[in-house]
Amino acid sequence: MRLVFAGTPEAALPALRALLVSHHDVLAVVTRPDAPAGRGRRLVASPVAELAAEHGVETLTPASPRDPAFLDRLRELAPDCCPVVAYGGMIPQPALDVPAHGWVNLHFSLLPAWRGAAPVQHALIAGDEITGATTFRLVPELDAGPVFGVLTERVRPDDTAGRLLERLAVHGSGLLTQTLDGIERGDLAACEQPIDGVSLAPKITVHDARIDWARPAVVIDRRVRGCTPAPGAWTSLRGQRLKVGPVRLGAETAGLAPGEVAVSKRAVVVGTGTEPVLLTDVRPQGKAEMAADAWARGARIEPGEQFGEES
């Protein structure tokens, strides 16, 4: 089939790579416009745009997929199907109508669970033991189209959102290729999603990533892993933010109030609403990531000090 691929971040690369080496013809990619990055805020092309350039594939970067010039070019390309992975924008009906086989999305959840921008993060925060990926036909309603195929993935106890998304992106690339193969053969039908079991996964904000130390340790563990690497779980001390990497459960220190910090030669332990947790890596405001014990020695944490709200 003749394809126009839509995607933007690193998570879309395994699928694009798989399609580039398949028998399908990738005519062009659609990706978000160049965005500022780094300390110098220099404009940088998206990972999908960079990969497309390496392979000599035309790249379309409309400010909006409603842009008339973009829609005209899409019609000129006349793709049979438009696979999409983490594009980062809603596709309007005029664009949906262009390919004969529609737009086929690879979404990183078991739909109808976790419809939205951050399905992997929300699955971890909620404590899901099983997640997966789904291919479905795009419709105007958010992630509500009929499903072509699914795969499941067990959530590991040490998974962060970054690690889990990386696995799902790799495994999901095969599911997307198989879905397109089935559509091309004409032997794969899409089934409507169940009415029950719908949950939403909106973008995780910096506010969502703040650690509430009064919550149970297992809940804190899930939230930190779900916010790693982005936007990064955080707390505050002495009026400054401190980003917190994945914690470890089962710390032996007892008698700590929620948020209270206890420092030994080799460990930094924090009280929660249940048992304490052990910090691993932290990132002080304006500094690089470092081991929690090294940070604590430099910060000279006093006995009884507590993490609290940002001042």
Describe this structure in words.
By secondary structure, this protein is α/β, with parallel strands linked by helices. It has two domains: 2-185, Formyl transferase, N-terminal domain (Rossmann fold, 3-Layer(aba) Sandwich); 217-299, Roll (Methionyl-tRNA Fmet Formyltransferase, Chain A, domain 2), CATH 3.10.25.10. It contains eight helices and 16 strands. It has helices at residues 13-20, 47-54, 68-77, 93-96, 119-126, 161-185, 217-226, 292-299; strands spanning 2-7, 25-30, 35-37, 42-44, 58-60, 82-85, 103-107, 130-137, 147-154, 234-237, 240-244, 261-263, 268-270, 277-278, 281-284, 290-291. The strands form four sheets. A seven-stranded mixed sheet has the order 5-2-1-6-7-8-9, with helices on both faces. Strands 10-11-15-16 form a four-stranded antiparallel sheet. A three-stranded antiparallel sheet has the order 12-13-14. The model has no long low-confidence stretch (mean pLDDT 95).
